[in-house]
Amino acid sequence: MERDDLFTMTHKGLRHGLFSVAQQAGTTEYGDPGAFAALRATWSRLERLLRAHSRQEDEHVLPLVSSKIPGGAVDLAREHTEIRAALDGLAAQVTTIGEEAEVEERRVLGLGFYRAVQRLLVTVLPHLDDEETVLMPRLRATCSEEEIARVRAGLSNALGPEETQHLFGLMLQAVNPVEREALLDRVPGTGGREG
Ligand SMILES: [Fe+2]
């Protein structure tokens, strides 16, 4: 891991969650209430984590970016708004499927949900990549160690216990052995962690 990287391991966990639910959305039999309930539980948990993640970046990362690079946070804030809008749409689709009694109609709606989840990946993946490959180098070039450390500390406290536990579970499934060792040093309660 590069020093003071605020994003990469967290994003590895988020990508793992997204790929997993994208696959589950394709294999679920939407006509079976139990199978749909399982997908809905996985999806809703990831949705909460994605919303919390973009909120913590809005609160702790974007103000620093704006202070160092005039206008530098505009695109990131817009992308967060787009991601939240996509999540709103998916949440509405999940509700609609849950309320639909007709099996065939549930299957049609389920295919629409599956496709929308794939489109969410198209929106989220370039954004995560941009934060790692464009934003983080700009932060390193323009911020002091102390400023980056303050952002890391703010991010560490921004997620609730449920989201933190979920995120660490995803990250541990998504990282390589070297990163895993570093991550285990950051398990909540034993020290800091990534945001
Ligand atoms: Fe972001």
Summarize the structure.
The chain has helices at residues 8-27, 33-60, 62-68, 74-99, 103-142, 145-156, 161-174, 177-184. The protein has 195 residues and is mainly alpha-helical. It is elongated, with a radius of gyration of 18 Å.
Task: Please describe the topology of this protein.
Elements: H1 8-27, H2 33-60, H3 62-68, H4 74-99, H5 103-142, H6 145-156, H7 161-174, H8 177-184
Bound molecules: fe (ii) ion.
Fe (ii) ion binds at residues 54, 57, 80, 127, 131.
Overview of the structural elements:
It is a single chain. The protein has 195 residues and is mainly alpha-helical. It has one domain (8-179): Four Helix Bundle (Hemerythrin (Met), subunit A), CATH 1.20.120. 79% of the residues lie in helices and 0% in strands. It contains 8 helices and no strands. It has helices spanning 8-27, 33-60, 62-68, 74-99, 103-142, 145-156, 161-174, 177-184. The radius of gyration is 18 Å and the shape is elongated. The chain starts with 7 loop residues before the first helix and ends in an 11-residue tail after the last helix. Residues 190-195 have low confidence and may be disordered. It binds fe (ii) ion.
